[in-house]
Amino acid sequence: SFKDLGMGYAKDAFHVYHDGMRLEGASATSFEILGWGYSKDSFSVYYCGRKIEGASVSSFRAGRDGYASDTFNVYYEGVRIE
Length: 82
Fold this sequence. Notes:
Strand order of the largest sheet: 1-2-3-4
Largest sheet: 4 strands, antiparallel
Helix content: under 10%
Structural class: mainly beta
Number of strands: 12
Mean pLDDT: 97
Radius of gyration: 12 Å
Oligomer: single chain
C-alpha cells in the first residue's frame, strides 16, 4: 500500500513519511499535499515534515513562495510571522 506523494512525502495504509522519516501522529487516511512544502491531515499542518504548532487545519491555505495563512496568522516557510 506504499505510495509516493511527491515533495518528499509518502504514505502507506497506516503512516505518513517525509524524507524517509515517519511523521508521528499524522493520519494517512486524511493526509494531503497543499503545495510549496505545506501539507495537512485532519489534525495538524506540516511544513517540510515539521508540524506547525497552533495552525488552524480547517482554514489553512498554502500560498506561493513559502507563504501560507489560516484565519488567524500568516506563515513563511512554516514559521508564524509576528
